[in-house]
Amino acid sequence: MASALVTRRHFVLTSVVALPALALAACGNSATASTTSPAPSSASTTTAKTSSSAKPAAAHAAKPTPTPASGDTHHGASVTVNLWYGWAGANAIRTWKALGTEMGKTITSFNVHWITADNNTKLLTAIAAGTPPEVAVGNAPYPEFWARGAAIPLDGMIAKSKIIDRKDVPAASWKYASYKGKTYGVPEVEAFVRYSLSLDAGNLQAQGIDPAKVSWDWDTLTQLQQQLTKKAANGSSAVLGIDPLDAMGGAFGGGNPFYWGQAWGIQYFDEHTGAFNFDNAQLAEAMATVKKIYDIAGGARAVSGFHSSYGYWTGSPTAAFPSGVEDGQINGYWNPGDLALTAPHRTFAYTWPAVPASKKGFMFQSTGGHSGFIPRGAKHTAEAFQVIEFLYGDSAESIIFDSTGWLGARTSFLQKVDVNRYKGLDWFIKSAQHNDALYGIPSNPIEAYTATQWNTALQNVLYGKATPQDALKQLQQIVTNEYKQRSGGS
Question: Which domain holds residue 77?
């Protein structure tokens, strides 16, 4: 990956690449919120109305490299702990100015120099050179780091900590922060649940559809696709009913779970045996479902052209869903906050992530997200762990939530969250506790490579180059061979 200076929502399948081999080693997540609120019923949704004279450069002149945002909590202190924060942009800078001020009040015995940085290839280079930062968090290929020894185990520090309580974070969240029985990361900063079926309630109601009564199985959504997709005069889609691969439906890796496996009840990788499970009837049905949905909208090429005009996700007012030209997508808990900014005059509803007809009524949710960790070779590890503890705590979580709408994985903090700040957030808080299953992400040491190969296989199906069965059989062989090669044939 060229850079990790991206928002969390854009660190998805298309931006993840396999890690280069290192001589030494190298390489998010959600919560079960405990609330006293009643569980959302099997047909319920939460409906939300969001509110809320320079000279031209010389020809061919080289563009200057932008300077990353950075700061210090106690400049000139005898000890400095370097922290690399894997997000950039205005929100990250605003958040870190506030975090830096608060951290300076909380941690007074040393300086923390924070910088928005690439926690993928540049961090790997720094580790290999013996000059890593003391702490890193955000947009790292976590399981690949864990497997290659690019982070140090934290179990002993966590056990002695008076701030970090393992029981306050769901076991499913620790799963992705661990590898082969050792814990390498602490879920924090952005680490809450990943899924909902997000619906444009206004558009559905205009078609006589009550969003609170929409069944979230893919057979029903296929029928709705025919009703909701509207063609322009030139035959292209003017309104797309649902894009099953927009947002979290197309995300895989970098803190995001594999939606299609979880929806169909498939654990795609067994970290104990190193075995992959792609060549099966369930994922073949999932691929066929995506193709059917796309074909109703004119095919994969038409859907791609549609998004080239509007964009994906919900972080921009011109993206398809906030613009009102896409009626549904699979997306996570940040959606209410995004839409409050990008579509303040539209109304949205949230219900359970879609499942196949054979699992109709099944209510599942998934953990995901990011962890703070200490890279291998870091100096001042005791002080580094204090920074991780700070980012885990209430004061940091409150600043991050107020600035970005992001949430960590701690049950105790989730119980205090003002769900009215972002309308619709209450559904996600409830879904983390009241569900039929809360899944975690396996620590797959070739996660990025696997995600890329899945995407290639799926695209081959969508463009008619392969059947689902043939694509999955080939995928199974490719990732199995890669895993064996990287693990020395074992």
Answer: 8-40+70-193+368-439
